[in-house]
User: What shape does this take?
Amino acid sequence: MALIFTDENFKSYLEGSKPVVIDFWAEWCGPCRMIGPVIEGLAREYEGKAVIGKMNVDENVDIPAEYGIRSIPTILFFKGGEMVDRQVGMAARADLQAKINALL
Assistant: This one.
């Protein structure tokens, strides 16, 4: 199951040794609702290997602003606490898997 990231807990997830993948989304966003099940599936598939979750941009404004999230869905990829990749808009599951595998 995908984790729920917030402005408050965001940095604590970056401190671990595993890659972190965050889907920035909102309830009213159609493409976000389409990619949501993909993120959930990836969270199950990579459990124990990567930290994968979602951050609602309507409920959390600090972290999306810090990383310049202007369009959703946007997915950020972190390794060693640093952002190393970004996917803006819809993406195929295979493309997201390739980005995650590159971080492992």
